Amino acid sequence: MKLILAILRDEDTESVSHGLIVAGFRVTRIASTGGFLRRGNATMMVGVEDDKLDQAIQVLRENCSPPSDTIQRRATLFVLDVARFDQI
């Protein structure tokens, strides 16, 4: 299992979370700030099975709007191995 930590611009959070949910992924959104000029960001946590990782990343790519300048990024993704997962 993998955990995707995706740091997105605020304006992309609705379309990305909707796209992930429609594709069958569960998403947890955390409001966050940081980066250049403290622009609004959101951090999304998405737990995925190993064989669904590429599909989840593709959904993220398709639902992030293009950057308005060359300094901005669409998203920053961290993919972490999950040793154990429990729901209680």
Short description:
This protein has helices at residues 13-22, 53-63; strands at residues 2-9, 28-33, 40-48, 75-81. By secondary structure, the chain is α+β, with helices and mostly antiparallel strands.
Task: Report what the structure shows.
This protein has 88 residues and is an alpha+beta fold. It has one domain (2-81): 2-Layer Sandwich (Alpha-Beta Plaits). The protein is 24% helix and 34% strand. The protein has two helices and four strands. The chain has helices at residues 13-22, 53-63, and strands at 2-9, 28-33, 40-48, 75-81. Strands 2-3-1-4 form a four-stranded antiparallel beta sheet, covered by helices on one side. β2 (28-33) and β3 form a beta hairpin. It starts with a strand and ends in a 7-residue tail after the last strand. The model has no long low-confidence stretch (mean pLDDT 88).
List keywords for this structure.
88 residues; alpha+beta; Alpha-Beta Plaits; four-stranded antiparallel β-sheet; 24% helix
Average pLDDT, rounded to a whole number, is 88
- Helices, by number, come to 2
Q: Write out the strand line-up for the largest beta sheet, numbering strands in chain order.
A: 2-3-1-4
Biggest β-sheet description: 4 strands, antiparallel
**First and last CA, distance:** 18 Å
The total strand number stands at 4
Query: What class, by secondary structure content?
Result: alpha+beta
CATH C-level category: Alpha Beta
Question: DSSP strand (E) fraction?
Answer: 25-35%
- Might you state the CATH topology name? Alpha-Beta Plaits
Would you list the SSEs in sequence order as H and E? EHEEHE
Low-confidence stretches: none
CATH architecture: 2-Layer Sandwich
The percentage helix is 10-25%
Please tell me how large the radius of gyration is.
Answer: 13 Å
| Outline | globular
The number of domains is 1
